Structure prediction request, 176 residues.
Amino acid sequence: MATLPRDVPRAGSMRAGPISGIKERSTRDAVAIWIALALAYLVFAGSLSVNEGLATVVCATLGTAWWWVAGRRGGVRFRFDRAALRPVGPALVGMPRQTARVGLHLIKALLGRAEGGATRDRSAAEIAWATPHGDTAPAARAVGLFAASLAPDSYVLTLDREHGTVATHALGDSAS
Prediction:
């Protein structure tokens, strides 16, 4: 009778094969996340010094540890496709115009000629990213919420899926 190597599952057995690839992939992901967090910290810190270097190491390590412990065990898995990323393009293209509009609004506010912002409730059925379906629904909702809040003149306050409403705050009349 021939014997199989120890790490090969027998036909009909419930034992899975080796999972060493998971550990390698997780370690590679952790290194990539640590590097991304460290670079992001350094970009936003705006200076290089010993203190910033130590803070970079600490923050990147804490962020990576959080991902390692909590982030990999969460119940929501994001699956992206091109359709889920569609709202980001128009949001980025519209940023310069909206930034100029916000600057003008703030100048008017300093001169006492502008009022504060307004809150607007809309039906979630009117907003494509608020009611996605399928495997990519959580990712599409997250990307849409991010894109809607990316504009400097407005942001999403709540997405109430139970009642089917989206509340936004905007400086001008363009709450979207």
Observations:
- The beta strands are 118-123, 154-160, 165-170.
